[in-house]
Amino acid sequence: MGVVNATPDSFSDGGRFDTLEAGLCHARRLIGEGADILDIGGESTRPGADPVPVDAEIARVVPLIGAIRAESDIPISVDTMKPAVARAAVAAGAAIWNDVAALTAPAALETAAELGCEVMLMHMQGEPRTMQAAPRYGDVVAEVCGFLAARAQAAIVAGIARERIWLDPGIGFGKTLDHNLALLAHLDRVVALGFPVLLGVSRKGFIGKLDPAEADAASRLPGSLAAALAGAAAGVAAVRVHDVAETRQALAVWAAIDAARP
Ligand code: HH2
Questions:
Q1: How many domains does the chain have?
Q2: For 163-200, how does the pLDDT look when each residue is reduced to its tens digit (9 = 90+)?
Q3: Whose CA is nearest to atom 11 of ligand 1?
Q4: Dist. CA 208 → ligand 1 center (Å)
Q5: pLDDT in tens, 113-169
Q6: Longest dimension (CA), the chain
Q7: What's the domain range around 89?
Q8: Using CA positions, which residue lies closest to atom 3 of ligand 1?
Q9: Residue 58 lies in a domain
Q10: Which CATH number covers residue 83?
Q11: Which residue has its alpha carbon closest to ligand 1 atom 19?
Q12: Percent of the chain with pLDDT over 90
């Protein structure tokens, strides 16, 4: 899954793709690099980010989704917590609702069921503005798995088909370095919940914490690849990345070695 941020303030590439033309160029590039899904977001979820009004978010994502759809049939996900944005995005051609709030907003479950789209349910402790203040868990892996299983069940009860549900442990969303590492070390337990798993590790802050020499988010590609491969080894179905070509190559080499095992 390649990330196209139509935002002025995302943590790793904010402001670079926030015009329609720039967003479309970037989408074309990621399609050319072999992305299987494009994830379009109009509200940054980085720690401390301010919420975006619904009209502004729609104005950022809908024209871009429409423009991509006009020239490509690549599956498009919309990265939003708002039912009204998901509705407008699906009308413009998105097929997947990627929700870092796991459809907890009022009417979100019902809207997703009505739209008939795929849904990606992510775990987050707190909300983006404050989530990194003091994340706390007893057993982070058990709590994240318990939350995801419960949200999947709520989605099914609301009428969302089981085969349309993905789960995501939400690396960096209300989690310390130790919490992120525990989740990455136990991704097999998220996979064992029985749904396809999406993993978002690309350029995230935990990589900077593990490499004191790292200067900024754009220089976190090597760490991003290492974490993506840990996900592949655990059986995740997709990785959400900024660097599509590089990640495809890393995954292809890993998969070839894996396939050569006796
Ligand atoms: N991470 C970000 C945004 N959306 N969605 C899912 N399902 N999983 C993730 O890990 C995830 C996500 C990161 O946030 P943001 O600050 O918006 O930056 P960017 O979109 O550049 O990654």
A1: 1
A2: 999 999 999 999 999 999 999 999 999 999 999 999 99
A3: 200
A4: 16
A5: 999 999 999 999 999 888 888 999 999 999 999 999 999 999 999 999 999 999 999
A6: 55
A7: 2-194
A8: 45
A9: yes
A10: 3.20.20.20
A11: 10
A12: 86
Ligand 1: residues with CB < 6 A are 3, 5, 10-13, 41, 44-46, 79, 98, 100, 120, 122, 168, 170-171, 198, 200, 240
In angstroms, the CA 108 to CA 224 distance is: 31
Q: Which atom of ligand 1 is nearest to the CA of 172?
A: 10
- 250 part of a folded domain: no
110 in a domain, yes or no? yes
pLDDT band at 214 (very low <50, low <70, confident <90, very high): confident
In the reported structure, the alpha carbon of residue 99 is separated from the centroid of ligand 1 by a whole-number distance in angstroms of 10
pLDDT at 67 over 80: yes
Using most ligand atoms within 8 A of CB, pick from 5, 50, 79, 98 the residue to mutate for ligand 1: 79
Beta-strand pair 96-99/238-240: unpaired
pTM: 0.96
Q: Residue 17: pLDDT band by 50, 70, 90 thresholds?
A: low
Asked if residue 102 is part of any domain, the answer here is yes
Tokens found for residue 247? 């990640």
Lookup: tokens for 159: 């009428």
Q: Given pLDDT bands bounded at 50, 70 and 90, which one contains residue 10?
A: low
CB of 49 within 8 A of CB of 255? no
Which of the residues are catalytic?
A: 204, 240
Q: Ligand 1 centre from 72 Cα, in Å? A: 23
Q: Which residue has the tokens 């007893």?
A: 138
How many angstroms separate the CA atoms of 50 and 40, rounded? 18
Q: Which amino acid is it at 149? A: A
Mapped onto helix, strand or coil, the DSSP state of residue 155 is: helix
